[in-house]
Design goal:
single chain, mainly beta, 13-stranded antiparallel beta sheet, 4 helices, 47% strand
Length: 258
């Protein structure tokens, strides 16, 4: 799931240049689509642990998540008990948060999209932008060869003119292992093209017949002592899921609301 169009359009002088498709760019897009598909199927179900460390607190929670296509995602806290039932629902371009303590469902506004998602270093906007990267970015292969004894590829992603994205550029390092393309390291740049966040991927495991990094770690560039780590404990793909699972009424019902 890797866990992503409410848009926050950011002007990126110099970044919005039309690019004609070349055999190289077509190959880069095909590889990126394969990486995107690694995290999602027609549907998916996952159990995860999330650890968050900031200057002010540390936090560990258990999560359960479901997805249907790339438009519908539901993530619910299952522990600790005091937060159990807190949930995030993404339906199309809209995100809702359900808070069982107050029995309130909040539809997030544009101004709330860059806020922290569940106290982590991911934003609500990350969840909304859980779409194909090739929809929003031009892709260029910048390295294709051996590095430290492994076949590796590097990619630069720059926003398309019409894309409503917050990142000025993304750099991605991928390990080519047989037929698999495994992300290893990603750097997200802000609109001034300064590094804003680094993602690393570890512990490749087999989930539902797919080799996937089980651990994702996000470190904000301006707060190197802080991080959010997501660990996939179980994951299955292409399972029967009803549309009704991704509804506002289901948010409340599953939390035990009357």
């Amino acid at each position: 799931m890797a866990i992503m169009a409410l848009a926050i359009a950011i002007a990126l002088p110099g970044a919005y240049q039309a690019q004609a498709e070349t055999p190289s760019s077509a190959r880069a897009e095909a590889i990126l689509r394969k990486i995107d598909d690694m995290w999602r199927g027609i549907s998916s179900h996952a159990k995860l642990a999330m650890s968050v460390k900031t200057a002010n607190y540390t936090r560990s929670i258990k999560l359960e998540a479901w997805s249907l296509g790339k438009e519908k995602t539901l993530v619910r806290i299952i522990s600790p008990l005091k937060e159990k039932g807190t949930a995030t629902l993404k339906s199309g371009d809209t995100i809702y948060t359900y808070l069982p303590k107050t029995d309130r469902t909040i539809r997030l506004t544009a101004g709330m999209m860059m806020g922290s998602w569940m106290g982590s270093h991911f934003t609500n906007d990350d969840l909304v932008k859980e779409s194909r990267l090739t929809d929003d970015y031009f892709v260029e292969i910048t390295f294709d060869g051996e590095r430290d004894g492994k076949k590796m590829m590097d990619f630069d992603l720059t926003p398309k003119p019409e894309a409503a994205v917050v990142w000025g550029k993304i750099q991605m390092e991928v390990w080519v292992s047989g037929e698999d393309y495994i992300p290893v390291h990603e750097v997200y740049f802000d609109e001034d093209l300064k590094p804003a966040r680094v993602m690393t991927f570890h512990n490749v495991r087999l989930f539902g017949g797919r080799r996937i990094p089980a651990v994702l770690k996000a470190v904000p560039s301006n707060l190197p002592g802080e991080f959010t780590e997501l660990t996939y404990e179980a994951m299955e793909f292409d399972i029967p899921l009803a549309d009704s699972l991704f509804s506002l009424s289901e948010l409340r019902r599953a939390a035990g609301a009357p």
